[in-house]
Design goal:
By secondary structure, the protein is an all-alpha fold. The chain is built from nine helices and no strands. The longest helix has 25 residues.
Length: 189
């Protein structure tokens, strides 16, 4: 495989991504709406999930759908898969979230905020747990090399910590036998 084939952009299915994003965040909105309905002070019916706090479901579904759609469309139009795509999708999603306030500054402000957050999140690795492991590196060899580079001589370790607790210098067994025989009178094989 040449480097041109590896670097070639693979188009994303915008419709499928939109359906997935809408479904997933719509379900999350349903759960949040159900929690809101449960915590209501007055007695509401089970349909209150849709009638009383149904806007939460629609807002979450619109947020997920617009983000997924605009991220995929931006990637397809630019033919690049980089951090600008989530930023563009984040602006669209933030703008949709800003529509609830019925104010143009809120639309632009939330769009910019979500754009910066999602673009930065993707640029820094896209994980809360840190960078993933590189699949091209043999991690066993890497760790062995790191151990060799940072290994301290046994003499230095013995000088700082002393013998015992799993740290044994040369001739340790012989000195141990003599010490046990001298102190306790027991012959150790």
């Amino acid at each position: 495989m040449s480097s041109d084939e590896e670097a070639r952009y693979q188009p994303k299915d915008a419709i499928n991504a939109t359906i997935k994003g809408t479904t997933i965040l719509g379900f999350a909105g349903l759960l949040i709406s159900a929690a809101q309905n449960t915590l209501a002070r007055r007695n509401v019916t089970g349909w209150g999930v849709f009638t009383r706090s149904g806007g939460t479901i629609v807002g979450a579904a619109a947020f997920g759908g617009s983000f997924s759609f605009f991220e995929a469309v931006a990637a397809n139009l630019r033919e690049k898969d980089d951090s600008y795509n989530p930023a563009i999708g984040g602006f669209a999603a933030g703008a949709v979230a800003g529509f609830r306030f019925r104010s143009f500054p809120a639309v632009l402000g939330l769009g910019a905020l979500v754009s910066v957050l999602l673009g930065t999140f993707d640029y820094t690795g896209g994980k809360l747990s840190g960078y993933g492991k590189d699949k091209n590196v043999d991690w066993y060899e890497y760790k062995e090399q790191m151990r060799k580079d940072r290994r301290r001589p046994i003499e230095e370790t013995l000088q700082e910590l002393g013998e015992g607790r799993g740290i044994q210098g040369p001739g340790y067994q012989q000195r141990r036998r003599e010490t046990i025989k001298q102190r306790y009178g027991i012959e150790v094989p």
